[in-house]
């Protein structure tokens, strides 16, 4: 099965404007994500789907593959679908967010393998155990529950499952985790991805602001692959400063960049 990675890249990010072009490490953030995605062994290609010429030019400058998409696309999924339409021979499309510079290639491969191993599913995604109460109770941390076959049952910003007797420290140290954080990496069968954008939103999706609930609402299966930890996305300036600091501790001082 032929698989490809598409990275949706929007310039006007809300909390950290133009974050994909920040380059204090000597490379723009989008380049870090692109290079991390290229470490996956199963995809045949990686393409950035952007909405602005500044990102387009930046990706071209570092030698990446990039496509311009409709700047008015309502979501990253629509942006990915627009590019996926041009890949007629692709079977699986992987959505890697542009602000995930440390995404592991093995995670991308796992999402692809989950779909390859479960022909009845139209999507796959990832999850990792939650080990702190603070993370569990944070609505920004999306939780997922799944069945014994690793098919997703529900996604929520609330605590799921909700312990009837209350949350206790034992829940975070047990060998078989009770709580799982959803990781926003998706693999789609191409034909389903093109249909997904035309499906009406459902009420649970609107309430939770989670697009994957639309898939479950219409009766489709999402497989969940388990990884030991998640990469840290860049949402705020503090997130980016931590990322820069982590790279500096490995590589030392960075050169000046004109990116």
CATH topology: Spore Coat Polysaccharide Biosynthesis Protein SpsA, Chain A
- Percent helix range: 25-40%
Instruction: Write down the overall geometry.
Output: globular
What is the assigned CATH homologous superfamily? Answer: Spore Coat Polysaccharide Biosynthesis Protein SpsA, Chain A
**What is the CATH architecture descriptor?**
Alpha-Beta Complex
Helices and strands, in N-to-C order?
EHEHEHEHEHEEEHHHEH
Instruction: Please give the largest β-sheet.
Output: 7 strands, mixed
Assign the CATH class: Alpha Beta
Rg, alpha carbons: 18 Å
Mean pLDDT: 92
Produce a short descriptive summary.
With 259 residues, the protein is of the alpha/beta class.
Structure, described:
By secondary structure, the chain is α/β, with parallel strands linked by helices. It has a single domain, classed as Spore Coat Polysaccharide Biosynthesis Protein SpsA, Chain A, CATH 3.90.550.10. The protein has 9 helices and 9 strands. A 7-stranded mixed beta sheet has the order 3-2-1-4-8-5-9, with helices on both faces. The radius of gyration is 18 Å and the shape is globular. The two termini are 37 Å apart. The C terminus is likely disordered.
Task: Explain the layout of strands and helices.
Layout: E1 3-9, H1 29-37, E2 46-50, H2 53-61, E3 66-68, H3 76-84, E4 92-95, H4 105-117, E5 123-129, H5 133-137, E6 143-146, E7 152-156, E8 180-189, H6 190-196, H7 203-208, H8 212-217, E9 222-226, H9 237-251
Parallel strand pairs: 1-2, 1-4, 2-3, 5-9
Antiparallel strand pairs: 4-8, 5-8, 6-7
Keywords:
about 260 residues, alpha/beta, Spore Coat Polysaccharide Biosynthesis Protein SpsA, Chain A, two-stranded antiparallel sheet, disordered C terminus
């Amino acid at each position: 099965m032929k698989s490809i990675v598409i990275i949706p890249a929007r310039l006007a990010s809300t909390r950290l404007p133009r974050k994909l072009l920040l380059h204090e490490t000597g490379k723009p953030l989008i380049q870090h994500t692109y290079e991390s995605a290229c470490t996956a062994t199963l995809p045949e290609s990686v393409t950035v789907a952007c909405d602005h010429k500044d990102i387009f030019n930046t990706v071209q400058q570092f030698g990446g593959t990039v496509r311009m998409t409709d700047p008015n696309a309502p979501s990253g999924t629509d942006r990915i679908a627009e590019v996926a339409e041009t890949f007629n021979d692709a079977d699986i499309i992987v959505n890697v967010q542009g602000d995930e510079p440390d995404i592991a290639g093995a995670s991308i491969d796992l999402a692809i393998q989950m779909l390859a191993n479960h022909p009845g599913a139209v999507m796959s995604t990832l999850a990792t155990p939650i080990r702190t109460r603070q993370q569990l109770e944070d609505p920004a941390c999306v939780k997922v529950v799944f069945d014994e076959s690793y098919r997703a049952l529900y996604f929520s910003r609330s605590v799921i499952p909700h312990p009837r007797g209350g949350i206790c420290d034992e829940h975070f140290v047990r060998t078989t985790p009770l709580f799982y954080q959803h990781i926003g990496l998706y693999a789609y069968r191409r034909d389903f991805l093109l249909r997904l954008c035309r499906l009406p939103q459902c009420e649970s999706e609107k309430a939770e602001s989670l697009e994957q609930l639309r898939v479950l609402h219409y009766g489709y299966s999402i497989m969940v692959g388990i990884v030991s930890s998640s990469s840290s996305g860049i949402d705020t300036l503090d997130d980016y400063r931590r990322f820069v600091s982590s790279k500096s501790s490995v590589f030392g001082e960075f050169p000046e960049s004109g990116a």
